[in-house]
Amino acid sequence: MTGRDILSDAGLWRDAAYVNGAWVSDGKAGTMDLCNPATGATLATLPQLDAGQVRDAVEVAEAAFGPWRLRPAKDRAKLLRRWFDLMTAHADDLARLIVLEEGKPFAEAKGEVAYAASFVEWFAEEAKRIRGDVMAAPEAGRRIVVLKEPVGVCAAITPWNFPAAMITRKAAPALAAGCTMVVKPAGQTPLTALALAELAHRAGIPAGVFNVVLGRASVVGGELTANPKVRKITFTGSTEVGRLLLEQSAATIKKASMELGGNAPLLVFDDADLETAVDGFIATKYRNTGQACISANRAYVQAGIHDAFVALLAEKVGALKVGEGFEDGVQQGPLIDAAAVEKVKDHIADAVAHGAQVVCGGATHNRGPLFFQPTVLSGVTQAMKITREETFGPIAPVVKFETEAEAVAMANDTEFGLAAYLFARDGARLWRVSAALEAGMIGVNTGLISNEVAPFGGIKQSGIGREGSVYGIDEFMEQKYLAWAGAGEAKLV
């Protein structure tokens, strides 16, 4: 089974854009075939909207904004809760779609669906907690009143590697705040986005409030960034594309949040628990076959524990099961496309040419052209591509260090600052190194840091703003200040 017939609810298989509560199958810019990365089989042929059709979606979202923002927050919360309930009820089908178009193992896809749904649940609750403030003014008889209001029509451009979670992490707070949204999912993984739109429709979210457009990134992105009716742009993807979107949005001064590239370091000190550190590295490095922005891209291991760490890491990595996502026990799926495989090969070749050793793996896997062996490299240095660039693949490079200061300097020697990880037992060291690391998120003795309660985001060239948490909804709000005279007069009437 390769398509609609694999779903328990065939109504979740959608192969058209979703605009104003209707399915748009006529793409004026043609069509695009969608393929399964594990098998190469064609999954669907999807319409590609042109700029005019995207503009129409923005017009629809603007028309829906007025009524949606005026609905009581409690009503918006109820609709989001229904969306959450439907996502939870259809978790297996959503996971199947993720496996088909993205390639990750089914168990991991189920985990992503739960993660995606958690943002809808969280922001359904936060919708009712939006509040402003009242402050005393410098002058007698005045008050300062601060209101929070929805920013307006929002555009979300999302990546292929987490096709459910990267949509709900943006759409849920936007809708909770009273904004409307136009989503442009990645061309490699649109089916999950369209299934989410179907469930939003069933939940009763009004027409025009949540829209999904399909098309070439340059066409859709160009319209969304140039259109003055779009007041907010939110993007997850590479730093290079983030820069371009910010440049394109500058003419209309849009509010922006960007979750961009990473090059996460993982530091292991001599006093760390060896098993905990290795398992933590594997948890963050090999999640989604290494295709995650917060994956540890490079490990720095202190000399006293280095050899034992590499040996245990290679043993466990060598045992990871590679295969198609629906097979029992599979832990590593395919990479997303041929370009991803070539980048992994290039990083390994460069590292070996400069003195690194392949401890395990190091080549394509016999399962197919997009599968790659989980790999461990030792003897890695800062001069190699694999420590300078984000690999986005199942390759674990290990660098040996002597001192704490040396490790921190190497960890911070990058323009990126999304995530970092450290493993140690000494409490003072944990606080000291956490303070010194230049990253927006730090895992301390853990490789798992993502959840709906924590603020997700980076510093430096890894992004702007935060997603999730109590702070996430503010990204979709504007503050309005009222200078209120005649309040708090001393004289009573």
Overall mean pLDDT stands at: 96
Low-confidence stretches: none
Named CATH topology of the largest domain:
Aldehyde Dehydrogenase, Chain A, domain 1
State the helix count: 14
Helix content: 25-40%
The biggest sheet amounts to:
7 strands, mixed
Radius of gyration: 24 Å
Structural class assignment: alpha/beta
The percentage of residues in β strands lies in 15-25%
CATH architecture of the largest domain: 3-Layer(aba) Sandwich
Query: How are the strands of the biggest sheet laid out side by side?
Result: 14-15-16-13-12-18-19
How far the N terminus sits from the C terminus, by CA atoms, comes to 79 Å
- CATH homologous superfamily of the largest domain? Aldehyde Dehydrogenase, Chain A, domain 1
Count of distinct structural domains: 2
Count of individual beta strands: 22
Name the shape in a single word: globular
CATH classification class of the largest domain:
Alpha Beta
Furnish the topology, listing elements before pairings.
Elements: E1 17-19, E2 22-24, E3 31-35, E4 42-47, H1 51-70, H2 73-89, H3 91-102, H4 106-126, E5 133-136, E6 142-150, E7 153-157, H5 165-177, E8 180-184, H6 190-203, E9 210-212, H7 217-226, E10 230-236, H8 239-249, E11 255-259, E12 264-268, H9 274-285, E13 296-302, H10 303-318, H11 338-353, E14 357-360, E15 375-378, H12 385-388, E16 395-401, H13 404-412, E17 416-417, E18 419-423, H14 427-436, E19 441-444, E20 459-460, E21 463-464, E22 477-485
Parallel strand pairs: 7-8, 7-10, 8-9, 10-11, 12-13, 12-18, 13-16, 15-16, 18-19
Antiparallel strand pairs: 1-2, 3-4, 5-6, 6-22, 11-21, 14-15, 17-20
